[in-house]
Amino acid sequence: MGGDTVMAISFIYDVVRTDGTGYKMFRNQKKAEDYAHSIKRTDEEKVQITRTAKGFAPYVYYV
What we know:
Blueprint: E1 12-17, E2 24-26, H1 29-38, E3 47-52, E4 59-62
Antiparallel strand pairs: 1-2, 1-3, 3-4
């Protein structure tokens, strides 16, 4: 096993309102989710977060 290197996965979180406004990119999930909550106009509004990383399928969720 000597010489094996472990590659860190670098996720990118793209945050945007469903109407396309308020876009911002983060490399930290907590900061992305905090920002998503901060741009909500109402408690019912959903803000989209798309997590991407090289070699992984994009993962979309809403806060």
